[in-house]
Design brief:
Layout lengths: L17 E6 L2 E6 H10 L21 H8 L11 E4 L2 E8 L15 E5 L4 E4 L14 H6 L1 H11 L6 E10 L2 E10 L1 E3 L2 H5 L25 H5 L10 E6 L4 E5 L5 E5 L3 E4 L1 E5 L1
Antiparallel strand pairs: 1-2, 3-4, 4-5, 5-14, 6-13, 7-8, 9-14, 10-11, 11-12
Length: 273
């Protein structure tokens, strides 16, 4: 039998290489990719949101996966991992993003989920107006109902409700008021996708804009793998851009805005736990 030092030397792992692990659960094999992901995740549960997994988690959320969320360990759950349920790919975009937010503190451990593609198309409003902001839009009042039905069919009572601060008034084409609302399924905003405002009205030297959102930083998935933002067709974001336009992600991946009466992709986010 050859000694280990007699084997040819390697300088790197391939993702499919097999390693042998030994411990209290016996001697087992593991791929180099899964070993690398798991070893990095052992640092802390929080570290899981800084690792791109992109692994198929199955066709439903398993009992083990539910326990990993409930216990805040997030064992074997990483950004980019996904379930394929009812023909739709549901991907993990962040972990515990909304913890401690809301007028009523949100403390439930959770995953932020976004589908890989728009679920359907819908207008923000029947005419080119942003009156009433996001909360006053036809999209908010009616357009997200189909998405809620699809998501509940896939995840059932795992769908969580949290409190979010949303725009409900517009003055001179700028968001001018907001309020706290129960939130289950919502459109993303520019901060969640890009990490900053792009077309949302900013300060003009005389007024200081107010951010009507608890979304204060980019979702981890969009930061780790920006390509998942681009769908090669455009979809809505919820930000008010002017008296006639809401923000969106253009087919080329660039930040853009569209007439409120245009029919664009509905690609929402939601929380499970």
């Amino acid at each position: 039998m050859s000694k280990l030092i007699d084997y040819p030397a390697a300088t790197r792992f391939d993702s499919g290489d097999i390693l042998i692990k030994d411990g209290t659960n016996g001697t087992k094999k593991i791929t180099a990719k899964n070993a690398a992901i798991d070893l990095a995740g052992m640092v802390s549960a929080e570290q899981h949101r800084m690792i791109w997994g992109e692994r198929n988690l199955g066709t439903s959320v398993s009992a083990e996966q539910k326990a990993a969320i409930r216990n805040r360990t997030f064992d074997n759950l990483y950004i980019g991992d996904y379930w394929v349920i009812n023909g739709i790919t549901w991907r993990i975009w962040d972990i515990c993003y909304f913890t401690h937010s809301g007028d009523n503190e949100f403390t439930k451990p959770h995953l932020v989920i976004v589908p890989d593609s728009a679920l359907y198309s819908h207008v923000m409003n029947d005419t080119n107006t942003t009156e009433g902001g996001y909360v006053g839009s036809k999209m908010y009042k009616e357009g997200l109902e189909q998405a809620k039905t699809t998501i509940k069919a896939a995840f059932g009572d795992m769908l969580l409700t949290h409190r979010d601060y949303l725009t409900n008034a517009v003055t001179d084409g700028k968001p001018s008021a907001g309020g706290w609302f129960d939130s289950q399924v919502e459109l993303m905003n520019e901060i969640m996708v890009y990490g900053c405002h792009v077309h949302t009205p900013g300060g003009d030297g005389a007024t200081v804009p107010y951010n009507y959102t608890t979304g204060r930083q980019q979702f981890a998935a969009a930061m780790l793998n920006p390509s998942i933002v681009n769908l090669r067709y455009w979809y809505w974001l919820r930000d008010v851009v002017s008296s006639a336009h809401f923000a969106g992600v253009n087919y080329g991946g660039n930040a853009h805005y569209y007439d409120a009466s245009n029919s664009g992709g509905v690609r929402p986010y939601f929380l499970i736990g």
